[in-house]
């Protein structure tokens, strides 16, 4: 018998703004071990419908139990394709008994379908900004407060959201039940898609205003209407929203709006079922809506089922020998601390480092020297080519590059691979899986990671070339590398990091956005590189004990102890054997011997205790030694790239050498 594959569910919540009251629930949720406290806080704080977790029903139930204890609105919804697709209308007919929405079936079939909304119907309405402008503003506002200020902004009311939406690109989706066929009917209304004269006295000159007036008219005809204004405001991966150009109807955003409507219908069904079950039990019921402040219960089947399965664990598909199903106990996981401040570089900081700084300074000097001499740069360039100086410089650079990659390849191949438990100090290479020390989350993909690099690019309206304008990186945040013997701490500061996963896009396609500075998104983009938690890493660097001195020299230790002794008058006077108040040569020699003895003893103790200390792999103290963190299955795949670089650079060096000899010989022979 083939086992049934558990279907995926979404645990949806109504995000809150008051984070002071979230600390107890964050502590409880983080103990389950699926999401850390930092990520949970991000999901729980904000506006609108938010996905807290995704998994099978059995895996998500422990979270629902905790959320109910703290009266947080929640719904467990099965992840399925939308069953109802809103039809785009192109006209309306209004009379005293009903509103008839007309839509063309297809271009090939000019006949029209008529969808009737009878007076007195119960309507679910979604008022959305399809341009993504409102979502971007809200996310920026929340980001600034929670990330940089440590506070949460005051949520916008429905009236404020409605006002902002109708300033942008509003769309209205309406859902109601057809009493004749007992099916759900859905229509989608754009500004200007109907004859505004049908509104009678409510008709105006503004297309957006007429759309708002139509919504008011629908509210008057409906017996009850539940309006949602929060599309795109919460963390909801199944329904992503991106910022679009003014006047553009983005198809992806419209698909997301359909998905959002399907989720709201599922939530309404859960609420209705829960209300019926509560009424059957003789309790007082409340007609709770998504936008209300009433605490919404989950379905009865969720309330009566409590499981100990940890989120992320696979559901058991086989039973034990006695016919009972095995039970997986949740693994308690300590909440990770908040990550330290990440590094952000912009402006001149992007270029003033290493050879880039030298190149910029050299260029400035050339400009200053050649100022007022228009032909001098051309003459220098022509002279360099004719004499073979420029080809010779290119040959030297190519040869240096080939030697660099050859030495790096040899260093990697000759460094033995160590295990975390038996790692020794000095140059070392290790393999393993990345594990977080801090609750670091990638800002774009919103996934747990050990490293991310977020780059912002801009271009002008007159130039198509992208220019790097800002880099935000977590390259100073330590993490752990785990293998089958244990873990070892990694300090990535100064390392050459090579992630395999990267994503890029434009503002409006992420949850954390750059400030556009008034520019359109087409002139600004981002790129994110990430080392996810659990990825396979190869690391070569310098290992030392945490907090240990990197000098390690007995002579340096003795010198430091003698300098400390000179600054301590009372300690110095202990060597004044004759009591004359001065330290003579013999007394100083005795002090030196004592300091050498202390340094040797400390060295021995440190050597004995080193195995009990945590090793740290970081940047080597000597320049020229590699420090590489690469996402790769083996060092062989890493060195294969260098094997291609070396012959290519040697061929380039040989070509430039021949070019230099030819130009130089031709030039000097004709002097």
Short description:
With 671 residues, this protein is of the alpha+beta class. The protein has 15 helices and 24 strands. Strand 17 and strand 18 form a beta hairpin.
Helices and strands in order, then pairings?
Elements: E1 8-14, H1 23-32, H2 37-44, E2 49-56, H3 57-69, E3 74-78, E4 87-88, E5 91-94, E6 98-104, E7 112-118, E8 122-129, H4 133-149, H5 158-165, E9 170-178, E10 183-189, H6 207-221, E11 224-228, H7 251-280, H8 300-303, E12 343-346, H9 355-369, H10 376-387, H11 389-414, E13 417-418, E14 426-436, E15 449-458, E16 467-473, E17 479-482, E18 487-490, E19 496-498, E20 501-505, E21 524-532, E22 536-545, H12 554-567, H13 569-573, H14 585-609, E23 615-618, E24 628-631, H15 635-669
Parallel strand pairs: 4-10, 8-11, 13-14, 18-23, 19-24
Antiparallel strand pairs: 1-2, 1-3, 5-6, 6-7, 8-9, 9-10, 12-16, 14-17, 14-22, 15-16, 15-21, 17-18, 20-21, 22-23, 22-24
Helix pairs in contact: 1-3, 11-15, 12-14
Task: Considering the chains and any ligands shown, give keywords for the structure.
alpha+beta
Task: Quote the beta fraction.
Answer: 15-25%
Q: What is the radius of gyration computed over CA atoms, rounded to a whole number of angstroms?
A: 34 Å
Mean pLDDT over all positions: 75
From the N-terminal CA to the C-terminal CA, the straight-line distance is 92 Å
Number of helices: 15
List how many beta strands DSSP finds. 24
Low-confidence stretches: 146-150, 283-334, 508-520, 548-552, 608-613
- Major beta sheet, specifics? 5 strands, mixed
Structural classification: alpha+beta
The coarse overall form would be extended
Strand order of the largest sheet: 4-10-9-8-11
Helix content: 25-40%
């Amino acid at each position: 018998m083939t086992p049934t594959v558990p279907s995926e569910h979404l645990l949806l919540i109504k995000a809150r703004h008051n984070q002071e009251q979230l600390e107890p629930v964050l502590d409880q949720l983080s103990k389950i071990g699926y999401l850390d406290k930092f990520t949970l806080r991000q999901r729980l704080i904000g506006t609108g419908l938010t996905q807290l977790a995704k998994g099978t029903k059995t895996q998500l139930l422990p979270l629902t139990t905790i959320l109910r204890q703290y009266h947080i609105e929640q719904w467990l919804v099965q992840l399925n394709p939308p069953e109802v697709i809103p039809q785009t209308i192109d006209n309306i007919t209004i009379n005293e008994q009903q509103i008839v929405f007309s839509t063309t079936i297809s271009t090939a079939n000019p006949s029209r379908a008529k969808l009737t909304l009878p007076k007195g119907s119960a309507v679910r309405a979604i008022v959305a900004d399809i341009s993504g402008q409102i979502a971007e503003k809200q996310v920026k506002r929340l980001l600034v407060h929670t990330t940089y200020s440590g506070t949460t902004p005051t949520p916008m009311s429905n009236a404020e959201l409605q006002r902002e939406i109708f300033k942008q690109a509003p769309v209205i989706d309406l859902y109601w039940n057809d009493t004749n066929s007992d099916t759900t009917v859905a229509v989608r209304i754009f500004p200007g898609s109907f004859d505004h004269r049908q509104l009678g006295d409510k008709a105006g000159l503004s297309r957006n205003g007429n759309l708002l007036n139509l919504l008011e008219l629908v509210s008057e005809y409906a017996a009850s209407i539940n309006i949602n204004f929060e599309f795109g405001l919460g963390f909801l991966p199944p329904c992503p929203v991106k910022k679009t150009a003014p006047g553009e109807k983005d198809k992806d955003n419209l698909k997301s709006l359909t998905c959002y409507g399907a989720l709201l219908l599922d939530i309404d069904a859960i609420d209705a079922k829960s209300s019926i079950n509560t009424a059957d039990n003789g309790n007082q019921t409340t007609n709770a809506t998504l936008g209300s402040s009433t605490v919404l219960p989950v379905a009865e089947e969720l309330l009566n089922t409590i499981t100990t399965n940890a989120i992320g664990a696979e559901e058991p598909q086989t039973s034990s020998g006695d016919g009972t199903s095995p039970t997986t106990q949740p693994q308690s996981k300590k909440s990770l601390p908040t990550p330290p401040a990440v590094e952000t570089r912009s402006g001149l900081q992007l270029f003033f480092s290493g050879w880039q700084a030298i190149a910029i300074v050299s260029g400035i000097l050339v400009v200053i020297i050649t100022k007022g001499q228009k032909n001098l740069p051309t003459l220098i360039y022509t002279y360099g080519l004719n004499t073979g100086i420029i080809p010779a410089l290119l040959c030297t650079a190519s040869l240096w590059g080939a030697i660099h990659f050859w030495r790096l390849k040899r260093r990697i191949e000759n460094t033995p691979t160590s295990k975390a438990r038996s790692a020794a100090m000095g140059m070392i290479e290790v393999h393993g899986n990345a594990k977080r020390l801090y609750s670091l989350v990638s800002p774009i993909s919103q996934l747990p990671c050990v490293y991310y690099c977020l780059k912002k690019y801009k271009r002008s309206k007159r130039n198509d070339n992208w220019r790097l304008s800002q880099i935000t990186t977590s390259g100073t945040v330590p993490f752990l590398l785990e293998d089958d013997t244990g873990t070892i701490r990694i300090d990535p500061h100064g390392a050459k990091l090579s992630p395999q996963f990267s994503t890029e896009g434009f503002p409006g396609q992420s949850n954390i956005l750059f400030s556009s500075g008034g520019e359109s998104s087409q002139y600004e983009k981002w790129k994110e590189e990430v080392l996810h938690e659990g990825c396979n890493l190869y690391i070569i660097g310098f290992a030392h004990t945490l907090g240990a001195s990197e000098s390690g020299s007995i002579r340096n230790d003795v010198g430091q102890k003698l300098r400390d002794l000179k600054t301590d008058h009372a300690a110095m006077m202990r060597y004044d054997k004759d009591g004359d108040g001065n330290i003579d040569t013999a007394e100083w020699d005795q002090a030196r011997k004592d300091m050498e003895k202390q340094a040797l003893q400390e060295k021995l103790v440190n050597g004995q205790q080193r195995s009990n200390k945590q090793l740290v792999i970081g940047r080597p103290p000597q320049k020229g030694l590699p420090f590489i963190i690469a996402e790769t299955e083996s060092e062989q795949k890493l060195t294969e790239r260098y094997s291609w670089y070396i012959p290519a650079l040697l061929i380039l060096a040989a070509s430039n050498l021949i070019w230099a000899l030819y130009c130089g010989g031709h030039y000097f022979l004709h002097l």
